[in-house]
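User: Please predict the structure of the protein below. I'd like the answer in structure-token form so I can feed it into my own downstream comparison script.

Assistant: Understood. Taking the following sequence of 412 residues as input:
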Amino acid sequence: MSLKIWLRKLGPGLLFAGAAIGVSHLVQSTRAGALYGFDLLWAIVAIHIVKYPFFQFGPRYVAATGRNLLHGYKSLGSWALGTFVLVTLGTVFTIQAAVTVVTAAIMAQLFQITLPLWQLSALILVACGALLYAEKFYLLDRSVKFIILILTLCTITAVLAAASKGYHPPVAQHFEWTPVGIAFLIALMGWMPSPLDLSVWVSFWNEEKNKELGSRMKLRDTLRDFNIGYWGTLIVALFFMALGAYIMHGRGLSFSPGGAVFARQLIEMYTRSLGDWAYWVIGGAALTTMLSTTLTVFDGIPRTLEKTTLLLLPGLKKREKTLYRLYMLIIGAGAILLLAVYIENMQTMVDVATILSFCTAPFFALVNFLVIRDPSIPAAFRPGRAMIWLSRAGIVLLSGFAAYYLFLLIKT
């Protein structure tokens, strides 16, 4: 295969990386390094391995059937689609609020905007809605890949610069298995590399890629594209953790729970290592990355609910655009209301959103596993024995950890 053809077939995996590299990396990975050094490195690696099969089943299903995962959910019965809607509606407002407030905090710091963060968040969502209404989102989506590349290269450079100064985080373990520690661990893993419901979005992107190419991609090309994006997010997450560990851990420094102060601390980590010149480069890259994430979520959730509604109620097909815009309006209004009430603590907002995503992960893991194991899937496209056992272990681990956290929550 020529390089030109190979590059043309890349896309959905990079879109996944673009959506994943946001709150989980800029906020949670960096906080993990600042609080615990490299103590939780194992957790970032482990959650990537545990979640891998369930994300991979999205593009695998599209390669096998040419259709997105929601059709697989429907084939299991209305209970799967119905539960999917309930789970999605239970998390959409906190997820949208969390990514938007981080975007607003970085924007406020970068341009010295004094507007309250919830009001700035509202303006961002209005602007995102206008872009999506005008169907201009994909212009930004194509360019953001280069911005993420710049952010990644600057992060790697900043880590190497910080490490070269001779400081190394303490070797002693600081993470403790207390309710507070476990809550942070679950918040870290909840969106690492992203919420599991993003597996449905990945299947949308693969479906669209097939339409763009005019034919269905082969399984090996589909998985190669996905693997590049998926494992790339792991590498980036580890560098963000290292940045927090080298610059803040063991020095009496910690991130502020307030949005504006956190954004300033985040950008200052780069300028300490690279110099003042990095302020606008890093700030701009971080802002564009989070803006892309905000747009992706604000587009992906309404589109997912719209497609789900049409599968459950096909008679509404003529109302497709109306449904999409209605869901976008409801989600935007709910996120703004949530921010207006709980804006004082951005850290809590992010933690709640990521914990909710972790607690709903077992549902997506189980349903994705059942879909790809359906007898209608051709044998050549079904996962191998090792992947099946990894999936079973993942379902048990995700369910057990979520149940244990809920037990601690009720107990306390």
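That's the full token string. Residues 383 and 389 are 10 Å apart (CA to CA).
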